[in-house]
Amino acid sequence: MSQGAVPSREWARRALDVIMQKALDAVDPAEAVRRQLRLVGDQLAVGGRSYDLSRVGRLVVVGAGKAGGPMVRAVEEILGDRIGDGLVIVKAEHALPTEHVALVEAGHPIPDRHGLEGARRIESLISRLRADDLVLCLISGGGSALATYPVEGLALADLQSTTDALLRVGASINEINAVRKHLERLKGGGLARLAFPAQVASLILSDVVGDPLDVIASGPTVPDTTTYADAWGVLERYGLEAAVPSSVKRTLQAGLRGELTETLKPGDPAAETVHHVVVGSNALAADAAAAAAEDEGFNALVLTTFLQGEAREVAQVLAAFAEELVQRGGPIATPACLILGGDPIIKEKRAGKGGRNQEMALAAAVALAGIRNVLIGCLATDGTDGPTNAAGAIVDGDAVARAERVGLDPLEYLAENDAYRFLDALDLLLKTGPTRTNVNDLAFVLAW
To answer: Which of 18, 125, 140, 267 could form a disulfide with 205, with the two C-beta atoms 3.0–4.6 Å apart?
Structure first.
């Protein structure tokens, strides 16, 4: 804001667009890879570890996640013809042209046959490697659904219905992945086991609160902290024992009886051959947003990158912060930008259209009604909240009044989880298009 200019909604709205874009730029997958992957002569540096490619037999690139396309492009730019083979599974409509690494598009959040075929091809690529070979694994959010490969005795349909049941009851990503890791071959360190005795270097773009490596994409190269007992406990907690296929129950019960091998655990030789590097995270995006907000003339503060809870309840907290800024001038002086990152959920989803960020925005609009000089923005960093063609929404204290003037009742739309249609009618949706990155969600509270 220029000196002497009067803060306005238009100024704040334009600034928020810049702030959000800077946050996304900071977690651009290609740049994230370039920061951690460097080749000088035959020495390949991956984070803090170096590999002598003159001593490497084959270099294979595999992985899964929404950010796979840009990550592969960066790897190809750096390594070129040194790549012997590769395959990375990405979300439908997220592929990019590549030269050395094949990209397979698959379904998300419900796994499909394309993801299964891609996972089988990954197994074929890595299961016969030797100790002098190197696997470069590219992992990003969405990888759990994209790389799906059921254990013996299970079919793809079993995984699909189990995933759907867990999503419908609002199970957390940690809970969903605890189940997935005990039903699939690549998850819970399974990829590292298949690649052993080859060396594995994993570049990970985190979409999980706190960046727990064993949870991101269900930890395909990471020792697993969960057990069959944990997986069965998730079904019991949500009363899903009768809702999942009988084959899933048989598998988990067999694991509980010790009849099946547990997921990869610390101390296993396959775990000792893996090096992990987190190349991007929600915290990195939040910090970049704060720096951009300062540049735009706001006092900025990252309140948390551990935001969790039901979307409507989180919205109440966001609105409370907005009112605190306007009424009491805290926790920082206005013009102010508060930034929160994390992973809210919708516990029970009805037939309406819209994701958790849109639901948060609609609930926040209701809580903000009549409050002036505030904006709340809710952003899914992958650009497809719901999934829909919107990344979220931006609302203010006038949104409800505008809706009432055109005959829209926000509470009716909330009751049906139909935030998309409400926000679309008022032109409040954020439509970034697929960003090809994914570090969870960001929420912004602006006051002036």
So the answer is: 140
